[in-house]
Amino acid sequence: MTKQKFNIQQEITDQIIAAIESGCAPWRKPWIGGTGGAGLPERHNGEPYRGINVLVLWSIAASKGYTSARWMTFKQAKDLGGAVRKGEKSSQVVYYTTTEIEDDANEGETKVIPFAKSYRVFNADQIDGLPEEFYNKPDPARDLGTERDPELDAFFAATGADIRHSNQPRAFYNIGGDFIHMPEANTFHDSNGYYATLAHELTHWTGADKRLDRFKRHSDRKAYAFEELVAEIGNCLICATLGLTPDFDQSGAYIEGWMKAMKEDNRAIFRAASEAQKALDFVQGLTEASQTVAAE
């Protein structure tokens, strides 16, 4: 049996997608509480990570609830006097290096070939006994006084979506349970951020098999990245419909980042926009039908 070649780029991509599948992307967080936001992840010596490793470690930290910015190898943790807790799983990061090989086209000469390698790291939150500065305490969720709008609440309620709230500082759509989870509105910096986030998750909700059946139709390895594009565009469309201000700067940056990951498919943004429009049409159909029933 031929041994399958290890593909670092694919492994890293799968790792990011798996982390994002478990919850909201950490660079999109307009509420307080939980982890301290999207500060750059750092190596054991405080040096910040760069490039793809930032996305990898951001996503993993968000999905696992890690609050420390520091990451290190098993040996580095041991050298610092720490001990990785039994059963903790490492995360994979990548670095680029070069090697010299003979140049077949020019006898006697060599050429430099870049290639990627990977290694495994643990977050400080997985390690006991490190110096105190390696740990961060989660920010408590404070009551910012942000109040919900009855008319906007009525719009989202009219869709029939199961929207649940708790003090858990995560916003997500649970496919298996078919419900939307939201942090409490009073932990958001403003009501616009609350409803824009809810619009994002509601767009995900429309993709269930008993609604627009989007998840099955887009089931390849890029499915989660594509679905996030749909949800971000859907967020903007729903917000514009409700008279809210879509966060175009944030959404634009988010979409641009995933477009780079899917650059081999230059139709992705057009397909995502089409699916987002279908989601808006579906939501509006539900709310209009609800209003009609109420008026009778």
UniProtKB/TrEMBL annotation:
One Pfam family named in its UniProt record: MPTase-PolyVal
Coiled-coil residues: none
Domain annotation Polyvalent protein metallopeptidase: ranges: 151-274
Example GO molecular function: single-stranded DNA binding
Taxonomic superkingdom: Bacteria
Domain N-terminal intervals: 7-122
Protein name: Antirestriction protein
